[in-house]
Amino acid sequence: MAIDRRNLLRAAGLGLGLAALGPVTGCVPAEPRAETPAGQVDWVGLRQRLAGPLHLPADSGYGTAKLAYNPVFDTRTPAAVAQVANASDVQACVNAAASARIRVAARSGGHSYGGYSTPDNGLVVDLGTMNGVEVKPDGTAIIGAGARLMDVYSALAKAGRCLPAGSCPTVGIAGLTLGGGIGVLTGKYGLTCDNLISAQVVTADGTVRTASETSEPDLFWALRGGGGGNFGIVTSFTFKTVATPQLAVFQVRFPAGSLTEVLGAWQSFTASAPDEFWSTLGISAGSPPTCRINGCYVGSESNMNALVDKLVAATGTQPANRYSLSKDYLSAMMYFGGCANYSVEQCRPDWNGGGVLGRESFTASSRILTKPLSDPSRLTALLTGRTGMDILLDSLSGAPARIGPKDTAFPYRGALATAQIYVGATTPEARAAVNDMRDGLGKLTGNTAFVNYIDPGLSDWASAYYGDNASRLRGIAKHYDPSGVFTFDQSASKV
After folding, report:
1. Residue 405 belongs to what H/E stretch?
2. CB 230 within 8 A of CB 489
3. What is the DSSP string of 288-334?
4. Would you state the pLDDT for residue 2?
5. What is the DSSP string of 343-371?
6. Is 101:39 a contact under the CB 8 Å cutoff?
7. CA–CA dist 9, 412 (Å, integer)
């Protein structure tokens, strides 16, 4: 996941330790696996093997343990939720699920748009307590797969380091990274997955492997943009980081009726903007639609404002409101996450993290703008007359474009932007509206989509998410998971 939906929309109205096994060279094999009757798991035996708790439907903690971020999935009833404490726990869970041939799903932050981390009758492997962040003297950071972005940002900031990632503070580092990872520092430092050095992974055979450029290189390729839950369960990541930069942030709101002009100018400006300048064009449907541009700049506020001046001038439109602020790294991340008025401790989930941030009901989908829209007025027409819908166009220009489309599993190198379609409701009407906009926008962009915003209703999803990388991903999934232990409706094994 990239930009925090709720808080960027709100901004429109505003002036434990690491996994017990650290990165290893080679792999740690699984215990011999005993087959059990299909669908039958020895839950008592599994509970005894785990260092962390196992919650079954009859247990008092199950109701909370099964909750994902979006309440629309509250009706789902996993067979069990294992709150794993280390990689050995993950191995035990994978072995138990594989032996009984039940669905097993990893959960980091629980933000899967399709609810794939909350499977009915499956085993949820909740990595939330494996949330440590350790910064090494050379600046590399070992991050537990259960860490949420606020855990990551606060720990790195204390060490004077920075990692480009998303904005929503309760999103898990694992799902974000495995799908690519877009955020406000993308232009300068690349996608989150572009900064990955290695990952520790429990594969379908229960083996702990280290994936890197030199160890399991095909698996490492797939983990950088191939989507979460496809090839195994990651227990920790090692990232390169950079020294914390000085940042500046801005917002420009435009009057209703100016979307076509603003979109045209934003597309042209974004395509050639300096790496240091990143922005998102937020559009609210209506009669007529309204729009605003939020952004982040690596450098001084004055240098940023000089660029914003050029962008505004290119629109030919007088803004309705404009402001800018200078921020340090952590303050900027909290600002974009809607936590500017909260402490780090408060900027965590209220359902399982001791913070004040609540869950969110929403329906969403996506497209990718591989190039500027030739006629911006067509998007204006699609949004005119609708209500309650927003589209966020997040820039992909800069550093991500200097990696080849086949160098990682993320295929959209050189694209202009992701387009997230969002409605803050989960009614059938909301789903129909999102589907209609997704299909209408698809006529302008082609069959494209962002796997971090995974959509169970998307047709020809394999091509949309992965493009020409789909066949290689399918082969890697079949190699590491020949029995389909990690198969789900939109898994790489079904590409």
Report:
1. none
2. no
3. S-EEEEEEEEES-HHHHHHHHHHHHHHHT---SEEEEEEE-HHHHHH
4. 40
5. -TTTSSBTTTSSSSB-----EEEEEEESS
6. yes
7. 25
Exposure of 214 by Cβ count < 10 A (0-12 exposed, 13-18 middle, 19+ buried)? exposed
pLDDT, residue 16, reads: 32
- Look up residue 440 and give its amino acid: G
Q: For 111, which DSSP code?
A: -
Instruction: Read off the tokens for 65.
Output: 């343990």
Backbone angles phi, psi at 99, to 5 degrees: -65, -40
Residue 32: predicted pLDDT: 57
Peptide bond before 289: cis, by omega within 30 degrees of 0? no
Question: What pairs with residue 391 in β-bridges?
Answer: 283, 421
Beta carbons of 427 and 439 less than 8 angstroms apart? no
Single-letter residue type at 120: D
123: Cβ contacts below 8 Å, ≥ 6 apart: 41, 78, 79, 80, 81, 82, 93, 96, 97, 102, 103, 104, 105
> For residue 391, what are its two tokens?
């589209």
**Contact (CB, 8 A) for 341 and 295:** no
Q: What is the reported pTM?
A: 0.93
| Alpha carbon separation from 296 to 185, 245, 404 (Å, rounded) | 7, 12, 25
DSSP 114: T
Tokens coding 207: 């083996």
Query: What DSSP string describes 195-262?
Result: GEEEEEEE-TTS-EEEEESSSSHHHHHHHTTS-TTSS-EEEEEEE--EEPPPEEEEEEEE-TT-HHHH
pLDDT at position 23 over 70: no
Q: How far is CA 475 from CA 232, 233, 340, 483, in A?
A: 14, 18, 45, 13
How far apart CA 225 and CA 214 sit, in angstroms, is 18
Structure-token pair, residue 54: 């196992």
Q: At what angle do helices 329-336 and 149-158 cross, to 10 degrees?
A: 170
Q: What is the pLDDT of residues 170-215, one digit of tens each?
A: 999 999 999 999 999 999 999 999 999 999 999 999 999 999 999 9
Phi, psi dihedral angles at 2 (to 5 degrees): -110, -95
Which amino acid, 484?
Answer: G
Give the residue carrying structure tokens 């990632």. Answer: 165
Structure tokens at 155: 């720990």
Is the distance from CB of 474 to CB of 482 less than 8 angstroms?
no
Q: What distance in Å separates the CA atoms of residue 437 and residue 457, rounded to the nearest whole number?
A: 13
233-239, strands of its sheet edge to edge: 27-28, 208-212, 196-202, 233-239, 141-144, 133-135
